[in-house]
Amino acid sequence: MRIALFLSAWLVCLGALAVPNEPATLDRSTWPESLTSPALFDVASRAEILTFSRALLSSEILDENALKQRLGLKTINLEAIEAVRKRMWQRLLANYKLAQQSCDQDASFCYYINDLDSLRKQAGKFEITDDSFYAAWAQPSRMFHQRYLDEQLRLAALFPQISSEIGFFSEQEFSGEGMNDRLFMLTFDSGPSALPGTTDWLTDYLRTQSMSATFFVLGSALQTRLDQGNPQAVQALYKGQCVGVQGWEYRSHSHWQDWQDSILRSSALVRQVLAQRYVPLFRPPYGQRRADSGAFFQAQGLRVALWDIDSQDMAASLTAEQSAHRVLSLMLLWRHGVIAFHDTQVKVRSALPWLLKATAQSGLGWEECAAFR
Question: From which residue to which does the signal peptide run (predicted)?
Answer without folding.
Answer: 1-18
